[in-house]
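hey so i finally got around to running the thing on that chain from the lab meeting. sorry it took forever, my laptop kept dying and i had to restart like 3 times. anyway pasting the input first so we r on the same page abt which one it is
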Amino acid sequence: MISICSPVFDVDGCIVVEPTNTDGMADFTRRVTRISTLDGGASFNDFGYSDSDRLLIIEWTPLNDEQSQNAARMVKSYGRLIISNSEGCFVGAPESFSKNEETVLINILVERRIDL
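ok and heres what got predicted. didnt touch it at all, straight out
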């Protein structure tokens, strides 16, 4: 289960969804770069892990048309949303919203984790 909530009080500002595809929820990257050296090797700069490098891809089948309309409204209305899932609670910027015949897809750029 994933909850998507507005950062301020909104009567309709929270929806709970069951994702159809959880592949994009557990992905993360490290802040690492590789530079080729003249001797044929490589030099690495590793600055570790940060939650702010994550992209949460939330895809689900809406229960009804009102749920998908409410999700679209929240993406349009708020520059940040609060996302809670089994890994934690995150504040993130909604990057994109798309809807097809069966599913809704929202991409969230994580700003920070707020449950630690």
